[in-house]
Amino acid sequence: MTAFLQSTFNGLVSGAFYALLALGLAVIFGMLRVVNFAHGAFYMLGAFGAYVLLAEAGVPFWAALVVVPLALALLGMALERAFIHRLTRLDPLYNFLLTFGLTLILQDLVKLRYGVQSSPYEAPAGLRGSVDFGLFDFPTYRVFILGFAVAVCVGVWWALARTRVGMVVRAATERPELTRALGINVGRWITPVFGFGIALAGLAGVLAAPMRAVNPLMGADLIIVVFAVVVIGGLGSIFGSVAAGFGIGMVQAWAEAYLSAFPIVAQTIVFIVMAAVLLWRPAGLFGRAEAPA
Amino acid sequence: MVMRRTVGLVAAATATALVVAGCGGGGPQSDGDEKVTGGAIVLGVLNDQSGAYSELSGRNSVTAVELAIADFQAKYGDRAVTTDISVRSADHQNKPDLANSKAQEMYDRQGVDLILDVPTSSAALRVADVAKEKRRLYFNISAATTDLTGKSCNKYTFHYAYDTYMLANGTGRTTTEQVGRNWYILYPNYAFGQDMEKSFSTAIADAGGQVVGKDGAPFPNTSGDYSSYLLKAATLDPKPDVLGTMQAGAELVNVVKQYNEFELRDKGVGLAVGLMFITDIHSLTPAALAGTTYTDAWYWNFDQQNREFADRFQQETGTRPSFAHAANYSAATQYLEAVQAAGTDDADTIVAELEGKEVNDIFLRNGKIRAEDHRVIHDAYLAQVKPQSEVTEEWDYVRILDTIPAEEAFRAPSPDCTL
Fold first, then answer.
1. Is residue A125 part of a domain?
2. Could you tell me if A121 and A209 are in contact, meaning their C-beta atoms sit under 8 angstroms apart?
3. CB neighbour list of residue A293: distance below 8 Å, 6 or more residues apart
4. CB contact under 8 A, A212 and B52
5. Among A169, B12, B123, B264, who pairs with B269 as Cys (CB 3.0-4.6 Å)?
6. What angle do the packed helices A2-32 and A164-174 form, to 10 degrees?
7. Does residue B32 sit within a domain?
8. CATH code: domain of residue B216
9. Cβ contacts (< 8 Å) between B217 and chain A: which residues?
10. In this structure, are B274 and B392 located in the same domain?
11. Phi-psi region of A33 (alpha: psi -120 to 50; beta: other; left: phi over 0)
12. Percent with pLDDT over 70 in chain B
């Protein structure tokens, strides 16, 4: 039982990263119809941002948690205005290629400056050690990540459900033509929403820095799983992406814990789930629920 | 415009002349009794110059080979077999197919006499096939597989720095004897990891220990998460004394970060690392690895001789050398010495010159180039990462606990190998 709870908890922590990244992808896809392949690169820039601030300017983790996502949001908005925006009217493939190209450029720029070796980053002093849960103890930093990610997801949900901006975003995501026909200026929200999605990726990157290897390729592997998560949740579905993020994290952790005799299965479980979901519900688990016909 | 075109034509003509002189071997510049092909020796460094292994070897190994050439020229001056010695290098991106075609290009088109380095076992084996086919020399430095001196061995291939047996024998045996008998092994589930797991399990059993659990983690591990395995390690019965991780590069960094997060050392589970380079310790910081034992093929601050080399290397590159850098320097030097002694660069003559030779240099201590399988044996070292409080100098991160004599450090020649 203890082992089961532990691996569930670990799965939720992995899931927290998936959820934050998938949430950003979902709002961007919903608003711009752009599959942002560069999301993993922004996650990597988030982690590197935290590392550079600490190593070169002595800026601590807590400040980086605010500064880095904001800076990346600005960078994201600039890129949206300069490039992505110009291609949104064309086939989505164009932006897919564009963001893929951006990924390669960003990765290589970081590689040029910092090399491929991982850069060191430690958890802030207050979050080292572990918390005793009675049945088992668990690293404090992981508990923090889980709480923080859940708070961010709830905050985003609240903003979407209860604020005027949120309503516009939801409306534009689910019924773009109708929203425009009602005289709502969707265009002015596109750039800020893109920036917001990027900020979430950057935030996930800062959170990852103390527990994952910080190197230029750290986002490249992760983003493949996140795309699977987004597809499972339902492309563009905000609730679906978060639920699938946490769900896939747990499934992976259980597979690693209980299927270690079949490493091939543990390795590919995400894609097995994705294939099954696509066969059963081609729009993803929550793909229709957000936009009933 | 006309001027520029003229300059271009002149340049092209000069280049053509150079090529003709280089290939002809009988041009007016040639001194008649030339000993090496085309009057020149060309060394080729083929390795990863942009990916995961580019820091532990990469471009800095090219610099190491250039240092070796400069030292050779300074030593022999006019008596050198030739003064025209140069280096070519190429990036194989750790892809076996690319390594194969780059190696062919080096031997056929660039006149390379010796290919050096070639990390990544699968790529290293492909280059061995090329060397055999082209009958040209190949010193592998950075790949780990024992197949290079086992079923894939050949007359023109030498394995210079280390292999999985050396790592497992050093770390597995000594850790079992000195730290604890019970092991939990975590390995990346592909050729290198499986090879390492087998070598370690054998070495541990031979030393009287036992493997109480082992798991192959996905490779590449896209989630970057190892917590399931680390938690499992702490709950096994009997409890493991040592967690042996065979992960390398960024994956090793992930395992170590999470090992520290779950405070396994405080729970009585020590850490042993299968393959680690000084560049890995630098990136993880010694604090994260304090107390970890591993087998090192060479350490820059082991003695005065190594340190002098490390100082020169740092002047050129800005970092301290890994064992791969030192081994590239040594391999280039030993090749040039052999050419000098034999008075020719004919591959078969050089192989005869090298076989059975006993060598001591900057990298090889009590070194011997084994004739049976072309394994270059030398002393290896059991190293332990210092606690942060004892690190007084950047890059000086380990202390050497024990020297493993050359004869014990490597396996006996494999019956699978016929040269």
1. no
2. yes
3. none
4. no
5. B264
6. 80
7. no
8. 3.40.50.2300
9. 256, 263
10. yes
11. left
12. 92
Confidence of residue B190 (pLDDT cuts 50, 70, 90): confident
Same domain, B182 and B319: no
Same domain, B398 and B357: no
Domain that holds residue B269: 165-296+380-409
What value of ipTM does the predicted structure carry?
Answer: 0.79
What is the per-residue pLDDT across A81-126, written as a single tens digit (0 to 9) for each?
999 999 988 888 899 999 999 999 999 999 888 888 788 888 888 8
Q: Is A116 on the interface with B (CB under 8 A)?
A: yes
**Torsion region of B247: left, alpha or beta (phi above 0 gives left; psi -120 to 50 gives alpha):** beta
CB contact at 8 A, A193 and A236: no
Place of tokens 């194969």: B100
Q: What is the pLDDT of residues B255-314, one digit of tens each?
A: 999 999 999 988 899 999 999 999 889 888 898 898 898 999 999 999 999 999 999 999
Q: Identify whether B36 is part of a domain.
A: no
The Cα–Cα gap between B393 and B276 comes to: 20
In CATH, what number is assigned to the domain containing residue A246? 1.10.3470
A16 touches chain B (CB under 8 A): no
Query: In chain B, what residues touch A212 (CB-CB under 8 Å)?
Result: 224, 254, 257
Two tokens, residue B191: 């050729």
The residue segments making up the domain with residue A26 are: 2-115+131-280
pLDDT at B16 (0 to 100): 43
Six-digit token string for A254:
């259980």
